[in-house]
Amino acid sequence: MTTQLLTRLTLILAFLLIFISSEAQKNQEINRAQKSGELEAARAAVITEKLGLTPEQAEKFWPVYNEFSDQRAALRKEYVQAKRAIDPKNPNPEQQQNLVTLGLTIRQKELDLEKDYSVRLMGLITAQQMMRLHSAEKDFQMMHNAHWTPPPHPHPNPPKAIYQLLFLKNI
After folding, report:
1. Is the pLDDT of residue 105 over 90?
2. Which DSSP state fits 91?
3. Rounded distance between C-alpha atoms, residue 57 and residue 51, angstroms
4. 3-state secondary structure 23-37
5. Which comes out higher in pLDDT, residue 33 or 133?
6. Which residues, including other chains, have CB under 8 Å from residue 65's CB and lie 6 or more apart?
7. Cβ distance 126 to 51 under 8 Å?
8. For residues 79-89, average pLDDT
9. CA–CA separation, 63 vs 79, rounded Å?
10. Centroid of chain to Cα 94
């Protein structure tokens, strides 16, 4: 009887741990989706402001621009996946050569994609706004990197003067 009780308790505990783990994973996915949505909203706000889009322009611009961004991200993802497939501890020269070739191919595809979408976007926004688009994308990227980049690690052995300032002590 004691063995059966221990078996049941073990099973219940295992199911409870699995449930808790799956709930935690769902919460992480929800948080990731919220952050992604917040990031997209911030990007839209920055680009809309920098370009000076009217509401009518924005209504037509964003679906086309988002389509372009999605396709560009898919191209970049392809390269990142290929890069991750190479073992950094045991690099294979043939794989590295293939990665260089793939990188060039993807850059050309990105350029072709940008040309195609530039023509489409020029029908929706002015040439001046188009010229500011690249700058607005860079500005947003810099803002994003500055906001999400963790602070640098403190120096392992800070100078004596810093200790004095921090702790107001004479060392």
Report:
1. yes
2. -
3. 10
4. HHHHHHHHHHHHHHH
5. 133
6. 47, 117, 121
7. no
8. 87
9. 25
10. 29
